Amino acid sequence: MNLEQLNNEQWHERYLLNRLSKKERQAYEAFIETHPEAKKQLSETRLFIQAVQQEGTADIKAELQRQINAKNSYSFSMQSLYQAAALLFVFIGLPLLIYFQYNKTEVRTIAEHQTDNSFKEEPTLVKKAPLQQAERAALNKAPVQPKTESKNSVPIKKEQAKAKKPAAKELTSTNTINKQNTSRRSKTIEERPSQTDLNQAKVERELELEQPANRNLTKSNTFQSQRSFSSAQGPLQQMNMDINQKLIFTSDTMRISFLLDKSLPSAPDTLLFSLIELEDVSEITISVPKAYYQLNRSAIRVANKPNIGFTIKVGTFSYSAKTGTRMLIKEK
Amino acid sequence: MLKLIFISDKEIIARIRKNDRTVLGLLYQKNKTMIMRSFTKLGANADEIEDLLQEAIVLFWKNVTSGKYVQQAKISSYLFAIAKNKWKNEQRRKQRMKANGGEIGQSSHMHQEIEQLEQKKQLQHGLNKLGDPCKQLFLLFYWEERSIKEIAQIMGFANADVVKAKKYQCKKRFQKILSKIMVDK
Questions:
Q1: Cα dihedral angle (A110, A114, A117, A122), rounded to 10 degrees?
Q2: B72–chain A nearest CA distance, Å
Q3: B131: phi > 0 → left, psi -120 to 50 → alpha, else beta; which?
């Protein structure tokens, strides 16, 4: 750009906006000193730029202030919250509710269907062969050694095991329960005494002979389960329990396997088991919250219930279940 | 609220370069507490602190758009530094005023300053009369000191030459408006 053509305002602008190089700046300043007209133009341009800059600052400050006011004026009203909640419910909550309600009905139908099938598969255990007969038969017949030992076998009481090792060994094998074969074993009971029952009877007889002190304890392991499981809640009363089911209680695991009545709508919130006193054993009640059991096909399985402990009182002797202790509660 | 937490310094700068003015409020909200706490300790009152923060944000905006800002630290640190310098300058000015016994300056100087203020007011009035595209163009070029290319991008012009032509036309229009204002006066 030629400095002589100072009608060109670009020079003033570039000078005022610091866009001239060092050389250009020196030349421009020298020129301005000698040209008063150019100096006047420069001061006018300076004023104009200053005005624009002031306007710019005011403009952006106004914008900032507007945004601050907008943020400050935003007040949190409960009405908007209610509106949001209502919208959330209508568009998310309600469809979910409907969806899960529908699914629940579907699952129940499937469960009922499965229950029907299982009723067909598994014959009624009560009518054909009560466990009493099996036990009686076992006592009359010669004891047979158990064929298999389950992984889950645990001695009834550790103290007993220490005191009488051979007896404890037998007791261990007697109390062995195979989780997977529970239903199969139930079927076997109908027809003939099972190996477990035979061994149990044998151990009981032996313990009676050898350890009179432990008599009560041995007896405490045998209960008569209540025919109808009592409950304060409605659904449980509808349960038609089979008396031949095995109730196996340990302090860390509890398995209850029984058939469910068809009319049972769904799994109850709490299972309550009342075991009627037999001889000198006090009545015990065990409640199992829903969180600890699950409805599985035709059976309710209760698993991992670390908080459910129970104590059985046999006269003055109190028996508490310990970890790994197993009790076979069966019909007399 | 989430915007405040998750917006990064880089994003803020990118948005300023794109002339996104919504960042202003975010910058204010993000740094208000920190500036308030720091300057309360220095003895500033709430109004002074608010002014300082606003001025710091405006200067930060200007420095980013003109390319003078080089990111070396956090934006909050930069704003704090600007506010602190402004606060110190203000304190010095007050002390000088006290020392001079409240005298502003010589009467001739005052006269000149008043005249210049009058002229600036007229110019600003003219700018406001000029209308939006021209005013924005002037602000982008003279205040934000953006390059012609950037202005073309922001204002949606085809290229830099169109911006130059538009600027020339706007200046001519502005001169006309100014002369009209002078005549009316």
A1: -170
A2: 23
A3: left
- pLDDT higher for A181 or B92? B92
Q: Is the pLDDT of residue A97 over 50?
A: yes
User: What pLDDT score does B156 carry?
Assistant: 87
**Which residue from B minimizes the CA distance to A13?**
B142
Q: Does B124 touch chain A (CB under 8 A)?
A: yes
Among chain A residues, the shortest Cα distance to B178 is held by A48
Percent residues over pLDDT 70 in chain B: 92
Nearest to A196 by CA among A177, A215, A169: A177
What is the rounded distance in angstroms from the CA atom of residue A5 to the CA atom of residue A7? Answer: 5
Query: Which of A18, A46, A52 has the highest number of chain B CBs within 10 A, making it the mutation to test binding with B?
Result: A52
* Greatest extent of chain A over all pairs of C-alpha atoms, in Å: 138
Residue range A49-61: average pLDDT? Answer: 86
- B28 contacts on A by Cβ (under 8 Å): 64, 67-68
CA atoms within 13 A on the CB side of B109: 4
Contacts of A10 (CB under 8 A, 6+ apart): A1
Exposure string of A45-66, with b = 16+ CB inside 10 Å and e = fewer, is beebbbbbbbbbbebbbebbee
Give, for B62, the enclosing helix (H) or strand (E). helix B46-66
* Set of chain B residues whose Cβ sits within 8 Å of the Cβ of A64: 24-25, 28, 54, 57-58
Q: Are A65 and B51 in contact (CB under 8 A)?
A: no
Coil, strand, or helix at residue A107?
A: helix
- Look at A51 and B124 and tell me if their CB atoms are within 8 Å: yes
Q: What is the enclosing helix (H) or strand (E) of B146?
A: none
Mutual angle of helices B23-42 and A36-73, in 10-degree steps: 90
**Contact state of B142 with A57 under an 8 Å Cβ cutoff:** no
Q: Where are the beta strands (DSSP E) in A184-236?
A: 224-225
Nearest C-alpha neighbor of A323 from the set A221, A249, A215: A249
Q: In whole numbers, what is the pLDDT of chain A averaged over residues?
A: 55
> ipTM of the assembly?
0.85
Query: Which of A111, A219, A133, A208 lies closest to A164, judged by CA?
Result: A208
Three-class SS of residue A295? strand
Look at A52 and B128 and tell me if their CB atoms are within 8 Å.
no
CA distance B66 to B93: 28
pLDDT in tens, A226-266: 333 333 333 333 333 333 344 444 444 444 433 334 444 45
Please give, rounded to a whole number of angstroms, the shortest distance from the CA of A321 to a CA of chain B. 55
Structure tokens, A120: 């067909």
- Inter-chain contact B143–A56, Cβ cutoff 8 Å? yes
pTM of the full predicted structure?
A: 0.48
